[in-house]
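Figure 2 data, in text form.
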Amino acid sequence: MENKLRVGVIGVGQMGTYHAEVYQKLPQVELVALCEFNDERRNEVQKQFNCTVYKNYQDLLENPEIDAVSIVLPDNIHREAVEIAVKNNKHILLEKPLAKELEDGKAIYEITKDYDKTFTVGFLLRYDPRFNMVKQRLDNGELGDIIHLYCRRNSPITGPKRYIGASDLSMHVMIHDIDYINWYMGCEPVSVFAKSRSVLLKEQKMNDVIYALVAYENGAIACLEACWVLPENSPTIIDDKLELVGTKGVAYIDSCDYGVKFVSNSGIAYPDTRHWYYTNGEVSGDLAEEIMAFVNDALNNRKSIITPKEAYDSLRVVDAIERSIKEGKEVSL
């Protein structure tokens, strides 16, 4: 087809590989290039995807043949890549969070808030039908006004072992829930009180668990739980729940049961059927929906449903959680 979107992917670890595989299956996309700093991995993905593979992302971003990019780098090195991408007029899909530090997140927000190309951040729960249905029923008034909600997002310790030094629990895991809660509330968060504990990840100076209470302008309260030190042999990669109580109704999401279970000599497993599972050899799920929405927005020069302001507000809550933990008291945003 004519007018294909020419795409590059920066960072080809687990998530970057999923991005590249989704782009490669879309008929309206040409996967032009990848960028991978690790020499061994770079050779592997060159063979897998049969396209140009750069070592330096600046070289990829300065290629005028590339229209759009997925930036799938560690959280602590997002800022420079986004700045160069904006300078080179690319459509941008940035994996969440906006940045590791609030200062860097604010800088990204400032250069993208009025950007004339598509810019979005990878909060894939916006594309999960369950979380989206709750938003729809809030919007049509079926649930009334939110009184309070509770959510949790727990996962095995295999995750933080990959992110040592680049991220932490609040910004890498809890921020998913912060994003959709802000979306549900439709008003500003005003204060946060949070507590954490570090045992298994103490040597890495990372939190094992965080509990946070977030108050909003509308008076509603959100209670968030996040933990990423479940055993490596946990049968599910994510154990997440939501209970939302409104003045007219209640919404429940229990995502731990993925609808399929296997019991064998390998153990018990509840494989992912939501985020980036494979169907007939191709990546499907929320991540594919998110990437397809980005492609459609870029081809039609539209703004994403996830705005730079929303991504920045989520990071502001993360920053408040970290300040509350450090100061041992409730903090204002």
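Caption note: The chain has a mean pLDDT of 95.
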